[in-house]
Amino acid sequence: MELFKSPKVGSHKSRLPEEENVCEPGHGPYAVKRTIFMPDVYVPRRSHQTLGKGKNMTDIQRASLGKRLGAFMIDFLIAAIIQALLYIPFIIIPIIQKTIDPAQVTTRNLWLTLVTFSYLIFRDLPTGQSIGKKALHLQTLGMNAEPVSVGRLILRNLFVVLYPVEAIWLIVTSGEKRLGDIVAQTGVYEDQKIKLA
Predict the structure, then answer these.
(1) Which of 83, 143, 147, 173 has the greatest CB tally within 10 Å of its CB?
(2) Which residues are CB-neighbours of 139 under 8 A, at least 6 positions away?
(3) C-alpha distance from residue 155 to each of 35, 79, 160 (Å)
(4) What is the b/e burial string over 54-63, where b = at least 16 CB atoms within 10 angstroms of the residue's CB?
(5) Please, what are the averages of pLDDT over each run of 10 residues along the chain (197 residues)?
């Protein structure tokens, strides 16, 4: 009499799903990982295109040139207002009171211009949304719609100093991308369609 009876090979039915339902590694939303003790372990596959629950690159939309220009014009108007508000007490009033000489006027003009460009350079910090972009529901993100670091946002906007070159570039490329976006690997997207994890 046999005390122990070894199971026949192949007598145990596989618990794997049918062949057409098995997701092989590299295909579908899940990758299959098989081991000796756990023959059917499904591991969710992470992708750079994953943006959140049920969101992927097909769920987002790149902002149109018109909306991007509209956001920039809002930001430019804010910068102009800042410069005007500083110009009155630091240049106009001293000139009227004759308490400033031409050399000082030139120096103060340079400082006010620097302040104006500083706003335009740092306007997207820290979330990728300037006042203009927020008003038009836009956001600066990476090439795969990932959040952008502060350094990349600053690098992108440094090219505003070369605005004549940027304008020519947009005309030549039909408004596809700014030079700053190409260098910083960024883009402007419709933010109401993005729900980041």
Answers:
(1) 83
(2) 127, 128, 129, 133, 188, 189, 191, 194
(3) 47, 19, 10
(4) ebeeeebeeb
(5) 50 44 43 41 37 49 90 95 93 92 92 93 95 95 91 94 86 85 93 51
Tell me if 98 sits within 8 A of 66, measured CB to CB. no
Tell me the whole-structure pTM to 2 decimals: 0.66
In a domain, 83, yes or no: yes
**Domain range enclosing 183:** 58-193
Domain assignment present for 164: yes
Number of structural domains (the chain) is 1
d(Cα 77, Cα 68) in Å, to the nearest integer?
14
From residue 165, how far is each of 75, 77, 172, 176 by CA, in Å?
19, 20, 11, 15
